[in-house]
Amino acid sequence: MRYSETHKEETRKKVVKAAAKAVRAKGPEGVGVAEIMAEAGLTHGGFYAHFPNKEALVVAAIEEAFGQSSRRFGKMTDGLVPAEALARFVDLYVTPEHRAHPERGCPVAGLSSELPRQGLPVREAYERGVRSLVGRIANWLPEGTRDRDSLAASIVAEMAGTVALSRAISDDEEADRLLAAARAGIKARMGIVQ
User: Fold this and answer.
1) What's the predicted TM-score (pTM) here?
2) CB 93: neighbour CB atoms within 10 A?
3) Which residues 6+ apart lie within 8 Å of 193 measured at CB?
4) What are the Cα distances from residue 30, in Å, to 112, 114, 116, 129, 157?
């Protein structure tokens, strides 16, 4: 059987998407190559046609996870003035929905505790994603804000930390209260009133 010229790239994308979902849900150490290939509808043997090793796959998965999050949040905030975009982002990020679905959530909330044990290429991919997210938030902060990048990094840490903490709480109502308080607190700290 003859494949199209784009078959290999399409297959690689399918594997990377499956890996992004699996890595966010279970962490890099919680998934295996065979599981990811099966999720993509492929055999384990085809893995090495696309990646030299699991670490390279995890790098691609983290890049894809950040890309998916960026595109999703971009669609929800594009066209809004900066303060509205920041408020919308906080309202969409610090939610029970994000808490309940790490497999499609932000990698910062799901992977931060996993990354110190990973190799340098994986940590560098993660850091690029974090820097991009911090940059997006910094651009939404009011002009004249002192040290916008540091403040944006603090906002990312607070949002991701809240979502991660809410995932560890077994009482859904308590977790929801934590998320609601954090949303209100972050927006109040940023001077966003709604």
Assistant:
1) 0.89
2) 26
3) 187
4) 14, 10, 15, 21, 24
pLDDT in tens, 17-68: 999 999 999 999 998 998 998 888 887 777 878 899 999 999 999 999 999 9
CA angle, 62 then 99 then 181, to 5°: 125
Number of other residues whose CB lies within 10 A of the CB of residue 150: 12
Whole-angstrom distance, CA of residue 166 vs CA of residue 101? 12
Count of CB atoms situated within 10 Å of the CB of 172: 12
Q: What is the pLDDT of residues 84-121, one digit of tens each?
A: 999 999 999 999 999 999 999 999 999 999 999 999 99
* Cα-Cα-Cα-Cα dihedral sign, residues 182, 187, 191, 194: negative
Alpha-carbon distances of 154 from 19, 104, 134, rounded to whole Å: 28, 23, 9
